[in-house]
From TrEMBL:
The keyword Transmembrane applies. Belongs to the cytochrome P450 family. Its cofactor is heme. InterPro entries: Cyt_P450, Cyt_P450_E_grp-I, Cyt_P450_sf, Cytochrome_P450_Monoox. The chain crosses the membrane at residues 7-29. This is Cytochrome P450. Heme binds at C449.
Length: 473
């Protein structure tokens, strides 16, 4: 019979054996992924994770060195595939889109702030939500949002003017741009006045604590990744976890309130407002019961729009301003184009078609999205074994599409791929190579960004207002 100490010894040995197998034997001698080229792990515990966090453009460098399909080791040598091959991307985003789901461990954190809305829904649930939501994002509805973009951009302009008049010449714009895009999504999303540019608001503060005001975004990211291995990490009572949880409580409560208010309003007949939530509620009323969004799903869409439509647009605007400050000649060219199209800057009131007709603005927008994609990488997990690029990829492997690496490929963009050069978008030498599968800031296919037209129009209005009125250095 086993006594207690031999039982403990047996368990300890078993554990050591299991850890040795998982960390050192499986990844390097057995896993089918071992055959895929990639950087050697730099640490037993963290694999290549340190390079991902600290090095500049590590994925681009690995793809340039090892090819368009690369194996990277994560924490505890968990292997991940990084792809930058257009045929593979077409398969993942279009041909077999529902064979690839978002990494389940992503759900743990994201579901708390996004809900199971369009971004996190999978399979049939996604198909149903997307089909009913597409009409709300139609061209004609986005056109009607332009006056709101102009109104918020003009409040932002006045706020900066006010600071300049008070003698400030160096202004950190990040929190203001973030507030402007939050105000926009509040209005066009739900007819909700955050007024975060001019006053304080609990929901706006909750988002600020998650993003623009986050005390330590790298630590938050690290906790998020680590908790996918050790779930208890997210419950450790430290400030960073407390702030995240408090923000989630506010987001949940306020988005529920918004949904209930609109639903009550809708009991009196069709909603007249053209915000996304009103459009969704009107569409929902016309659908057969099995296609309708539930109240909970409606609330999730509010949470989804707030996150998906807020920081992405603000970070793109910030990058554009940064690049234009770095390249003053490009900034002047854009200002000239704007001055020619709208000679009286106090009456800057373009329509959707007018703002989209500006050629140089368009080039700057695309070049910013190319050089600094706000979503540099998207992740999927294959639900069944797949042959990808000639390699067997066992089910449940995380596959990352390196959008930002593709955007800087010298094969597509030539030797100046790393440089900010808006004029390249007027040069057929480059544009002839561009396809939906190699320039994809909003990805492409069935799960592409539903808000892309909205985002582009909003970005153009914000950028034009700022460049027409101020010089950035
Ligand atoms: C410059 C701004 C934006 C960029 C670069 C961007 C980019 C993206 C990308 C790359 C995805 C795919 C993510 C994935 O599948 O893993 C996505 C999805 C999505 N985006 Fe955006 N986005 C932007 C703005 C917006 C705005 C303004 C909204 C809404 C108001 C929005 C709503 C969504 C939604 C709902 C999805 C999920 C679509 C689906 O799975 O069917 N985005 N976005």
């Amino acid at each position: 019979m086993l006594n207690l100490s031999s039982l403990v010894g047996f368990l300890v040995l078993g554990f050591i054996g299991w850890v040795t197998y998982k960390l050192f034997i499986w990844p390097f001698y057995i896993s089918p992924l071992r055959k895929i080229p990639g950087p050697p792990p730099e640490s037993i515990i963290f694999g290549n994770f340190k390079s991902v966090l600290t090095k500049e453009e590590p994925f681009l460098k690995w793809i340039q060195k090892y090819g368009n399909i690369v194996k990277v080791n994560g924490i505890f040598n968990r292997q991940t595939i990084v792809v930058a091959d257009t045929k593979i991307i077409q398969d993942i985003t279009l041909n077999h889109v529902y064979d690839y789901i978002k990494p389940p461990e992503m759900l743990n954190d994201f579901v708390l702030i996004l809900g199971r809305g369009l971004v996190l829904a999978e399979g049939e649930e996604h198909k149903r939500q997307r089909k009913m939501m597409n009409p709300a994002f139609a061209h004609n509805n986005i056109k009607e949002m332009v006056p709101t973009f102009i109104r918020v951009a003009s409040t932002l302009k006045e706020l900066i003017e006010d600071k300049i008049n008070k003698g400030e010449s160096e202004i950190n714009l990040t929190p203001y741009i973030s507030k402007a895009t939050l105000d926009v999504i509040g209005l066009v999303g739900f007819n909700y006045e955050f007024n975060s540019l001019t006053s304080s608001n609990e929901l706006a503060d909750a988002y600020a604590s998650l993003f623009s005001n986050a005390t330590n975004p790298v630590a938050r990211f690290f906790i998020s990744v680590l908790s996918s291995y050790i779930p208890i990490v997210r419950n450790i009572p430290i400030d960073i976890n407390r702030r995240f949880k408090n923000a989630c409580v506010v987001v949940d409560r306020e988005s529920k309130k918004l949904m209930e208010e609109k639903n009550n309003e809708a009991k009196n007949g069709e909603l007249k407002s053209k915000d996304l939530l009103s459009l969704l509620i009107n569409i929902n009323k016309t659908l057969p019961i099995e296609e309708k969004l539930t109240d909970e799903e409606l609330q999730y869409q509010i949470m989804t729009f707030l996150i998906a439509g807020h920081e992405t647009t603000s970070s793109t605007t910030m990058w554009a301003l940064y690049l234009l400050a770095k390249y003053p000649h490009e900034q002047d060219l854009l200002r000239e184009e704007l001055a020619k199209a709208f000679p009286d800057k106090s009456k800057f009131n373009p329509s959707f078609d007018e703002i989209n007709s500006l050629e140089y603005l368009n080039c700057i927008v695309k070049e910013t999205l190319r050089i600094h994609s706000p979503v540099p990488m998207i992740s999927r997990v294959n639900v069944e074994d797949k042959i990808i690029g000639g390699y067997l990829i066992p089910k449940n492997t995380t596959i990352m599409i390196a959008l930002s690496a593709l955007h800087k490929s010298t094969e597509i963009w030539g030797p100046t791929a790393n440089e900010f050069d808006p004029k390249r978008w007027l040069n057929p030498l480059y544009t002839k190579n561009v396809t939906n599968y190699n320039f994809l800031p909003f990805i492409t296919g069935t799960r592409s960004c539903i808000g892309n037209k909205l985002a582009l129009a909003e970005f153009k209005i914000l950028l034009s207002t700022l460049i027409r009125n101020f010089v950035f250095q």
